[in-house]
Amino acid sequence: MKNCENNPQYLNVFDILKRTGLRGEFSFKFHITGFLGTEMEGIAAGEVAEFKLVLASVSDGVYLSGTILVNLTTTCSRCLKTQNRRIELRPQAFYLHETVVDEENLDENLYSLVNGHYIDLLEILRDSLFEKLEFNPVCDANCTNQFLETLEDDAYEDSPFAELRALKEKL
Ligand SMILES: [Zn+2]
């Protein structure tokens, strides 16, 4: 058993589970203790995530929907400028009563309740965030400070970039 009591990472949904059809709205803030994201985009440690969740009890679990507001720091993949912006994540997840044993059969929006009646908020935040992250984020659609242009320069013919360029042409 994990110790979930008095840990803001875990939301106790015991009351919702009492009867099918029960519904509850939850608003709260959660401090992110460690960086979440990729090299290009992420949420810094210490940021606050604002959760507004709706939970509904259904026959075999709890359905979660709502919004999470967080500050996302993005590094432009063209000019490397960093930017901070507020984003809204819209998680949708289903929490089963039974612990799901076979991970392979898991739908990506299917989760298990921790200790039978807790929702792991960090987990749903992380998964919602990763759905939103871009592989090559840009500061502006018109950002022209392209690294790739340098690769097209003939001066790079004999450099390690030539190999990269050849690769790029194959794409
Ligand atoms: Zn840029």
Descriptive notes:
With 171 residues, this protein is α+β, with helices and mostly antiparallel strands. Helix content is 19%, strand content 36%. The protein has 4 helices and 10 strands, in the order βαβββββββββααα. The protein has helices at 14-17, 121-132, 147-151, 160-170; strands at residues 10-12, 23-31, 36-37, 41-43, 48-58, 61-75, 82-89, 92-96, 110-112, 118-120. The strands form 2 sheets. Strands 2, 3, 4, 5, 6, 7, 8 and 9 form an 8-stranded mixed sheet that branches. Strands 1-10 form a two-stranded antiparallel ribbon. A hairpin with a 6-residue loop joins strand 6 and strand 7 (82-89). The relative contact order is 0.17. Zinc ion is lined by residues 76, 78-79, 81, 138-139, 143, 145.
Quick summary:
With 171 residues, the chain is an alpha+beta fold. It has helices spanning 14-17, 121-132, 147-151, 160-170, and strands spanning 10-12, 23-31, 36-37, 41-43, 48-58, 61-75, 82-89, 92-96, 110-112, 118-120.
Set down the secondary structure blueprint:
Layout: E1 10-12, H1 14-17, E2 23-31, E3 36-37, E4 41-43, E5 48-58, E6 61-75, E7 82-89, E8 92-96, E9 110-112, E10 118-120, H2 121-132, H3 147-151, H4 160-170
Parallel strand pairs: 8-9
Antiparallel strand pairs: 1-10, 2-5, 3-4, 4-6, 5-6, 6-7, 6-8
The structure holds zinc ion.
